[in-house]
Amino acid sequence: MNVSSSRALPVAAAALTGTVALYMALVAFGNITDFGTNQQFVRHVLAMDTTFKDDDLMWRAVESTALQDAAYVAIIVWETVTALVLVAATVLWAKALRHRAGHRAARRLGTAGLLMVLLLFGAGFIGVGGEWFAMWQSEDWNGLDAATRVVTLAGLVLIVTHLPGAQAEEKPR
Predict the structure, then answer these.
(1) Residue 172: its pLDDT value, please?
(2) How far is CA 30 from CA 39, 51, 104, 121, in A?
(3) pTM of the model
(4) What is the residue extent of each domain of the chain?
């Protein structure tokens, strides 16, 4: 595949968006087909039952399994919708590369999907899970490293997608 320098960044944006789409699809698929594994993770994080049990923090714990499970289902729905958005963005990138048109639509949809990833893993897992529910205190149920990796990947893809060279010239109509 011969990629000119003016097309290298759009190709990179397409490939990287596809990578995150694949990752999110696998995460959603895994949580749907192996519901119980991460269900336990979410339950323990929300219950704060493996934290330092500081009285000043424990009032934040969510002990209702119904609420814990509702949160987990909401996470899975968010992951699934995110995967679908990113898959659609990848398809748009592929079409834009083939036709040398449509980069803006691919970039917009990809940006929306990547922001969904950043909101889930950054605000949700790092912010809410890590800080509000003190997940960082748990030796057994600490997902901060994994969430940080995903935030880093999605953030880098977002940057590549918005680099000036990724906004390839579209052929005139």
Answers:
(1) 52
(2) 11, 26, 32, 16
(3) 0.92
(4) 7-162
